[in-house]
Amino acid sequence: MTSTIEVTNLSKHFGKVNAVNDVSFTVAENKIYGLLGRNGAGKTTLMQLLTGQEFASSGTISLFGQPPVENAKVLQNTCFIKESQRYPEDFRPKDVFKTAPWFFANWDQEFADRLIADFRLPLDRRIKKLSRGQLSSIGVIVGLASRAPLTFFDEPYLGLDAVARQIFYDRLLEDYANHPRTVILSTHLIDEVSNLLEHVLVIDEGKLLINEDAETLRNRATNVVGMKTAVEAFIGNREVLHRDGIGGLSSVTVAGLSESERRDAHAAGLELSPVSLQQLIIQLTRTETKEFEASA
Amino acid sequence: MDDSRPIFAQVAENIENDIISGALPEEGQAPSINEFAAFYRINPATALKGVNVLVDAGILYKKRGIGMFVATGAQEQLKGARRDSFSSEYVRPLLAEAEKLGIDSAQLTQMIAKEANNS
Asked: Strand pairing of A3-14 and A17-28?
């Protein structure tokens, strides 16, 4: 399979802060990736490095086989939608959509017009008068209608309401199906996007924590719930990702169980329940491990 | 789609249900991968994986350049498979719950007969 992105031992330091710390991964062509992690984990810095907007402290980056920095050939094929994109003082949305085609060879005006109607974006209002959500919708429209072979969305929907977010997901899927391309979506709303993703990258404190197929990751963990003694007997010395308890009940998250282990658990009167991608990532990236007595 | 089982397996199961109910008739054309992906709001690769489960089982077959179709005999094949797993899927959990509540098998038989009469 062709790699759209190849990153080797990439690091970026700001003074003493290691924003990105010795990260290596590849991104396959025409897949939708989720770039997930907590605030300040290094997601935005990583995307800025990948799009040539920051210089790496060390390591190499290759996009479409070439380094991205100051490389028009690479950047023409790349679209980076930032969380807080700034526009010139007097710009109106219509000016954005007039200039965007200059930068993106695959720009589809008809698609953009349809999205503008979907998001009910007022084209003639000054950008500084737009609401936070309307501002975000400009970025989403540019990101979708540019049809760039490599598109980054960095928290694209700050302030977008639930209806608008659903429109974004639906249009993304629909257009991706007809025009396959590589999409990297960075977001906190993991539950909302988890079914759209084919592959998941999780970074935490600048390190790449997870680089896995989304389907594999979804099946990676299971909650085992039951009487404390029975749960403890069942898990033995298995790796425990998370532990909750209330009264005599215990809820423990363990790594993937085999079919026979599932049968054993049922036979022991334990209940098994799935762990969502969001729950799994919360459990893997949280630092405190204290047991919550209140929530089960 | 819920989180309890792989999404591709749920896609496959939903298509099976449509074949069993007759919503997707034998030799009828099945929706495309992209239509499934848009409908279930899932990644097309996941939809493809679900459909391939049924292609491998001979339930769906591909006509090159046209699309996917439901095989003749698919409905009976699926019903047979569901009958085989009926005991473990439905009867055993029923018995386990009945035992927990102290309902013996005679009472259970009576309850089933009563419900069957009502419906």
From this structure: antiparallel
Nearest to A177 among B4, B7, B34 (CB): B34
In the listed set A214, A242, A277, which residue is the last one of a domain according to the structure?
A: A214
Is residue A11 within 8 Å of A59, Cβ to Cβ? yes
A76: tokens are 């023409």
d(CA A238, CA A133): 45
Which among B4, B40, B45 has CB closest to A274? B4
* ipTM here: 0.78
Same domain (yes/no): B70, B89: no
Kindly determine whether residue A178 and residue B49, on different chains, have CB atoms separated by under 8 Å: no
Confidence label for A291 from pLDDT (cuts 50, 70 and 90) = very low
Residues A154 and A9 grouped into a single domain: yes
Task: Please report which confidence band the pLDDT of residue A269 belongs to, taking 50, 70 and 90 as the band edges.
Answer: confident
Q: Please compute the mean of the pLDDT values over residues A66-90 and round it to a whole number.
A: 89
For chain B, the domain total comes to 2
Name which of A166, A179, A215 to mutate to probe chain B: the one with the most chain B Cβ atoms within 10 A of its Cβ: A215
| Closest Cα in chain B, distance from residue A58 (Å) | 34
